[in-house]
Amino acid sequence: MVQAYILIQTEVGKASAVAETISSITGVLTAEDVTGPYDVIVRAQAESVDELGRIVVAKVQQVEGITRTLTCPVVHI
């Protein structure tokens, strides 16, 4: 199982709607509004890195109101 944090910047005033929409995507564990340089932080998991990439590109990035994403895979060192 691969997990990652997805840091999201949104259009002004869209963070809550983006977080709510993303929270219903299969593979998303949490989606929360935050303050700071990013507006929403998502924790997601998938069976493989390729599947995680498909979740981000085909589903998360298609949500209306998102301007930029940064995916940070969790590593165990």
From TrEMBL:
One Pfam family hit: AsnC_trans_reg
InterPro entries with a match to the protein in the record: Dimeric_a/b-barrel, Tscrpt_reg_AsnC/Lrp_C
Ranges where the Transcription regulator AsnC/Lrp ligand binding domain occurs: 6-75
Name the UniProt record assigns to this protein: AsnC family transcriptional regulator
Species in which this protein is naturally found: Wenjunlia vitaminophila (Streptomyces vitaminophilus)
Lineage: Bacteria, Bacillati, Actinomycetota, Actinomycetes, Kitasatosporales
